[in-house]
Amino acid sequence: MPPKDYVKAGRATPRPRKNTKTAKPFPWPLVITVVALVIGFVWFLYHLSQKTPVEDAVTPAITAKKDELPPKPAAEPYQYIKELENKEIQVQVEELEAKGPFLMFCGTYRAIETAQQMKAKVAFAGYPSEVRRIEGKNGVFFRVTLGPYTSKRQAESDKSRLLRQKVADCRIANAT
């Protein structure tokens, strides 16, 4: 049994070349179709221009009515316009009680170095923060806090800015 040439077996057989000197047939059906469409379009435009516009019998009656205006009223039928000009309205405004100062917590860490790094990130974002030492049941922790804020809206604004700058995902809590 002769050895097989697996490399040669994987190759495709070359295709015979087409004769490049043969001329392509002229596309008569395409030319006839285009000429027929152009002639049809010209015929359509010609017949469109030959039609006379149809006069509508309703149109003159409508235009005649538009020229007439209704009579002007002798007196103003509504009195509320004059009454509201000098009217004074009393409104009672209830003061909302302040819910207290708010603090923003941006992380609690066991090592003070990690807390200092977070404080530096917050400082580069443009906010002053501080590291507070907290003694809990499981040992000593260091918390990075911002604030106090007088309103929760200010704290939410700073929180969203820190999120957009990808500094920290902070939590807002009441300081009391």
UniProtKB/TrEMBL annotation:
Domain of life of the native organism: Bacteria
Keyword terms of this UniProt record: Membrane, Transmembrane, Transmembrane helix
Cross-referenced Pfam families: SPOR
Transmembrane segments: 26-46
Domain SPOR as annotated: residue spans: 96-175
GO molecular function, one term: peptidoglycan binding
PROSITE patterns documented for this protein: SPOR (PS51724)
Stretches for region Disordered: 1-21
PANTHER family associated with the record: CELL DIVISION PROTEIN DEDD-RELATED, CELL DIVISION PROTEIN FTSN
Name recorded for this polypeptide: SPOR domain-containing protein
Species the sequence originates in: Rheinheimera tangshanensis
